[in-house]
């Protein structure tokens, strides 16, 4: 699940979004989309 990748890379290991995109072979906008979806899911479960 892409949202988990964002959570693992950015939140847990403090990896910059640009580096996540390069590592996963996607655009920066795609990673930002993962971030939005992850945050939305977290807000809905609280």
UniProtKB/TrEMBL annotation:
Transcription found in the keyword field: yes
Cited InterPro entries: RNA_pol_sigma_r3/r4-like
Annotated SUPFAM superfamilies: Sigma3 and sigma4 domains of RNA polymerase sigma factors
Keyword annotations from UniProtKB, A to Z: DNA-directed RNA polymerase, Transcription
Any one cellular-component term (Gene Ontology): DNA-directed RNA polymerase complex
Stated name of the protein: DNA-directed RNA polymerase specialized sigma24 family protein
């Amino acid at each position: 699940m892409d949202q988990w990748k964002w959570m693992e890379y950015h939140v847990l290991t403090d990896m910059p979004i640009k580096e996540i995109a390069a590592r996963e072979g996607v655009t920066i906008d795609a990673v930002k989309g993962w971030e939005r979806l992850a945050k939305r899911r977290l807000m809905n479960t609280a």
